[in-house]
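#struct-pred

JT: dropping the chains for the assembly here, can someone run the whole complex?
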Amino acid sequence: MTSVVSAGKKWGATLSSRPENVGLGVMLGLGLGAVALAAQWVKGPSSLLVAIAMLTMVVGLIYTAFAGGLEARKSLAPYGLLKPGMIWLCLFFLAPLWSMVVMSLSSKAGRFDFFPDFTWNFENYRIALTKFRPQFIRSFSYAGIATILTVVIGYPLAYFIAFRGGKYRNVLLGLVVVPFFTSYLIRTLAWNNILADEGPVVSLINTLHLTGVFETLDIMQNGKLMNTPAAVIGGLTYNFLPFMVLPIYVSLEKIDVRLVDAAMDLYSSASQAFRKVVLPLSLPGLFAGSLLVFIPAAGDFVNAQFLGNPQTTMIGNSIQDQFLRQLNYPVASAMSFVLMIIITIIVLIYTKFMGTEDLA
Amino acid sequence: MNTRRTTTPKSVQASRLNRRDFLIRGGLMGAGALSLPALLAACGSDSGSTADTVGGGGDSSLFFENWPGYMDEETIGLFQAASGVSLKYTEAFNDNNEYFAKIQPEMSKGKTIAPDILAPTFWMAARLVQLGWVQKLPKADIPNFVNLRDDLSGQSWDKNDEYHLPYQSGIAGIAYNSKITGRELKSVADLFDPAFKGKIGMLTEMRDTIGLILMGEGKKISDITTFDAASAGFDKLEKAKSEGQIRSFTGNDYVDDLSAGNFAACVAWSGDVLQLTKDNPDVKFIIPEEGGTSWYDTMVWMKGSQNGDAVAKWMNFLYDPVNAARLTSFVQYLSPVKGVQEELVKMGGDNAKLAEDPLLFPDAATFARLQSWGALAEEEEAKFDEAFASITGA
Amino acid sequence: MSTAFSKRQKAGQRLVNVAAGAALLYIFIPIFVIVLFSFNEPKGKYNIKWQNFTLDNWANPFIEKELTSALWVSLRIALIATIVSTILGTLIAMSLSRYKFKASGAVNLFLVLPLTAPEIVLGSSLATLFLNRSVGFGYVTIIIAHVMFQISFVAVTVRARIRGFDWTLEQAAQDLGATPSRAFWKVTFPLILPGIMAAALLSFALSVDDFIITFFNAGSLVTFPLQIFGASRVKISPQINVLASMLLFASVALMAGAMILGRRRERRHSGTLSK
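RK: done, full complex below.
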């Protein structure tokens, strides 16, 4: 009996001597446990075991906090603060991703079998990659073009607010953000009004006899601006513009104005000063902004649905269709996973290209 | 925004967290974090979502979930007054497939959904019956059942009319803007006229779009039971789409596009266009010479609902020709109830004119030109849906 | 500071100004259109072509029952989700910026992941989880989904705001005799509150406006964006524009109010400190 007690005491001493490891370990353990329970890695009585293990960990943590004294509590505090949010994310971000992977490798017995069995079915991935390749390619090219457009439109605006805004900076930033407070769908639908066949933009283009020019550029098709790829890309650009302006602004604002002045003195022209000094310093913002635009744009389906035609559908539309109409959860999950992987690869390549920047 | 530039101490400071505070903070968070799975498990046993009561209050309440714009306020009020049943009426049924996806999680587990009555399109109703999610109607309490139009009775998927009662029926044909087309249209082939490139609309309703195309190829759609028999129609549609003939696939939203001239012509539903043709004389609706498709939306009583008495009262009310006539004058689709024409004449005025409209009350010759789909087996229907989805670009 | 700008430099400056102005115009044209068309009297079921000016829509903004009840649902969900996510996110932000610990780099990365995953992946995977676990879709699932992406957003935003915060102030308060919790609530909290409020407001807006994630996890419950999407198949009534304009004006007023209050507080504080 005494050996157990002394072993327990020794263990307790070890715990309290390295409180930070305890904190880290408990956080990891609780997170894993949460995912395990939610994603059903274990079923039935085993899940009870997992729950008990998690409870033990919490008890251990509290014990360490008490026994370890002030230093222990100091190093455990961050873990304590982190835990609720982390567990939420583990439950509702990691576990769903796991479920998605499991579902993507499952097969359905019939069309209305809503509980597919896990069968290591890689056929779903084959379908995702072959049948929907046009949509994948289209989504990434639309998102890419939209990202470039947001830089072209948004950079001057961010520059203006950062360097010329003065005391109206906050107001101007507010103006950039304000459209956010109307519904995403309504903003997209508004472009329906603007780009309509008998609307102001098309009429203007027709009066200026520029229809031919626009048609060769493939911006207009058959004399219409709505239901074209250009309309979809335009919608994506518009909806994600603030996501580019704000990060660029943040990194421009950090630049000391005296640096810019010094550059102006050093270099012969303002554009050189810009290229050599301002532009490189704003790269973190450009990087963050491009990610914040490209990634959601690639997965979007609203713009294609409201502003496009049957030949401009993006992978988001297809995933939505497979999930909600064809009820083909396995294929839909495979498509989602492929989308995530490709985006991650693109982001990694992009990061290497730009150098490691932190996203703050 | 914080513009103060203060130095941040890099080292962790000695905060004198006292025992009580840590305990409280840690304990609360720990308890909160652990109780979440329990919360989740509790949710799992819930039968559903909203605060709406599931049909289980005897015969004093009824929940009917219908398509938008498919019912007038007056009928609802009159029904409640006449029967004493409180009717909850919502219009969230926008699309057959999307609604099916919404109710599937609960119905497939044997639970029930909030609405007592839905009005899906006939093929979706067939699917619901096949899946066993629909109850037999209390026909004994619906004496007006005899008023059901003969051509709608005895469907292949419900030979004894036990599971459904049609709500409205309609025709899918071609609507066109004569100002844009510059000529009269007569046949399905006109939809594929290269002169109208990029100005043709098609419906997202697969059976109406593919049905018309197949009829244009001279096929009889009621005979079609396999995907291979219909593949010619899909190929033709795919070709038209890739050549840029089709501007978009729409639901009911073709109406304004047609009126504005964005569409030269489109596949359309009779009820939508009726009012439009009166407002805009350029817009015309025709049943093509090859024929048109006939469809109907039908009421089903969902399994798990306990409000049989209220359901019977409601259906009986709707099948009274007087009420049916009032509904028809609002939605302007073909009523499934016999005797509506006479009632409309009795109502007089504009309604009497409706009674003469050949689109609302087609003569025998027109009826003979309409075709409707038979039931499709599960695997075949899946092939149809997949093929259509890849054409509409999804 | 060089004051002599060459003509080319001035032209370059003007170009930037023009470009910035054009960008602002671009941002606001659809907003004008939305507000403008709330005064339209559409002939058909769709509010696309300008017909007549009318005040009827504003006189009866809540005439579309389904739309109004959907708006209430969205507001209710957003309120609860924002409260939960602000608390959880702020705790994370505080732990990251106040303490230095081993896992902070990993936590940083983990936090950013939900922000970088496409919404369609987040939405469909969460729906798959709920389907597998037989959780009924509705209020709870939507709130869970919203909190999930709001946490990361709040944590990242609050952390950025309190980055320059001087934690020794708390220490000073404790040296003066305050208990740690009193020091926190009376000294630290009021100073980081603006950052928290800003994050809360923005995540509230994100929740009201969320479409894709909600689409997959709502079941039969209809939120404001879902109602617009669903009804857009049949009609787009001007009431949508009216309600959207109302939301817009309310949020502009809130933001302006916050700005004015903030400026007043700064003036008050700077006044006393400079003495």
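JT: nice. Residues 1-58 of chain B have pLDDT under 50 and may be disordered. The domain at 2-169+295-364 of chain B is CATH 3.40.190.10 (D-Maltodextrin-Binding Protein; domain 2).
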